[in-house]
Amino acid sequence: MTPYATSPSPATAQSLLRGAGLGLRRPLLDELLEQKPDSIGFVEVAPENWIGVGGSYGKRFREALETYPLACHGLSLSLGSPTPLDEVFLKQLKRFFDEHNAVLYSEHLSYCSDAGHLYDLMPIPFTKAAVKHVADRVNRIQDIIDRPLIVENVSYYAAPAQEMTELEFLNEVLEAADCQLLLDVNNIYVNSINHRYDAETFLNGIPAKRVAYFHMAGHYVEAEDLRIDTHGAPVIDPVWALLDKAYARFGALPTLLERDFNLPPLTELLDEVAQIKSLQAPYLADNARTANG
Asked: Taking the model in full, what pTM does it have?
C-alpha cells in the first residue's frame, strides 16, 4: 500500500485550502481575472474539462492559478462501475495534477460508465460487495495518481439492491478504503427529502475524522417531496442552516460554492461566497481563541 492510501486529515486540508472557494467555469474566467477577488480562497475544476486545453482558455486558466490554489473534482472515474479502471486516463490525470499543482482531488461515490459513458451519476448499490469493490478501486487509483483520492457523497433517486442505508454504506466505504470525504451539504438535504430521513441525524452519523472539506450548491424543486440536484440555482436557507450545523460538528473546513448552470454575474456568486465566510467566521474565531489559550 502506498503512503497515499490515507487522504489528508481535515487539518491538512485546511492548510492546503482556505476559507471559501468557487467552482471555476469557463464563462467566469474573464470576470475572475479582472476582479481577482480576495474573498475567494481557492478554485475547483473538473479536470476532464481542462486536460489538453490550450490557446486563450489555457493561458487564462494558468493565470487564474497564479492567484488561487487549485482543487480538482472529477466526473468520470466511475468508482462503482463493473468495468476495469481506465488507467490511461488516470495517468493523464496525474500529469494534469502535477502540471497545475492541484492540492486536492475528489470524485463522486457513484458510477457513470459500463460499456461506455452514461453521462450521468448513477447510484452504486448499497451492498457489502460494492463496498469492497469501491475500496479496491480507490486504492488502485491512489497508486496510479500518487496522491489521495477523496470521495463525495452524491444525490441519488433510486437505491437498487439495497442491503444497508446510505449512511451505513458511506461510512463502510470510508473505513474500507481508509479515505476522506468531500461532504456535499446540499446532497444531504436533497436526499433527506427524496428518501425521507433526517438530514441532521445523517450529518451527525459521519465520523469527524473523515471529513476533508465541503460542497455547497443549489437545487431544483420538482415537487414537494422531490428535489433535483442541479447546481443551477442559489443555495436555499435550509441548506445554509445545515452548513452551519456541519461547521458546529466538523469545524469551519474549506467550503466550495458550486454553480454549473444558469450562471449569474460573478458578483452574485461572490455574495454566496461571502455567506459561506460569514458562517465560518465564529468557528474560526473559536479555534483562534482555543489556540491562544
From this structure: 0.91
